[in-house]
């Protein structure tokens, strides 16, 4: 993954935002929409593309385009910074490979302890019974 190349491949679009800002909302396009085509990217190799397609399947469009938006701030520049940061976080998270789980055995001591407790409980319950003549 080459961040410099990926940064040049991002497409931004500014649109009018809802929320705080008063009359400013009606005049200024502060919401930023980011779109990134996974399929057309040259900053990712084929293995990374496949992994992103699998991990982000629910966030990608039919054409394998990742769309993100941000309208948290009143400034377009701040929103652009936030959405870019979020994009790289999502990409890095999707490219992490999970470590294989190592199967472990239950220690002998733990098994013996469990069985001895079980026996003692059984003895206690047995002693509560009515005597059999």
Automatic annotation (TrEMBL):
Family from the record: Belongs to the prokaryotic/mitochondrial release factor family.
Listed name of the protein: Aminoacyl-tRNA hydrolase
Sequence ranges of Basic and acidic residues compositional bias: 121-133
MF terms in GO: peptidyl-tRNA hydrolase activity
Enzyme class, broadest EC rank: hydrolase
The EC number(s) this enzyme carries: 3.1.1.29
Domain Prokaryotic-type class I peptide chain release factors: 16-32
Keywords: Hydrolase
Region (Disordered): 99-133
Keyword Kinase: no
A Pfam family it matches: RF-1
PROSITE patterns: RF_PROK_I
Gene3D superfamilies: 3.30.160.20
Domain of life of the native organism: Bacteria
Gene coding for it: arfB
Record flagged with keyword Transcription regulation: no
């Amino acid at each position: 993954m080459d961040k410099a190349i990926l940064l040049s491949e991002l497409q931004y679009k500014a649109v009018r935002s809802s929320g705080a800002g008063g009359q400013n909302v009606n005049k200024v396009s502060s919401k930023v929409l980011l779109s990134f085509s996974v399929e057309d990217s040259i900053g990712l190799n084929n293995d990374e593309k496949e992994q992103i397609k699998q991990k982000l399947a629910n966030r990608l469009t039919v054409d394998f385009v990742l769309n993100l938006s941000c309208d948290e701030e009143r400034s377009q520049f701040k929103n652009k910074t936030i959405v870019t940061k979020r994009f790289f976080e999502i990409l890095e998270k999707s490219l992490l490979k999970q470590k294989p789980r190592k199967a472990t055995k239950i220690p002998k001591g733990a098994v013996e302890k469990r069985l001895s407790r079980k026996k003692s409980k059984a003895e206690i319950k047995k002693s509560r019974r009515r005597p059999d003549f």
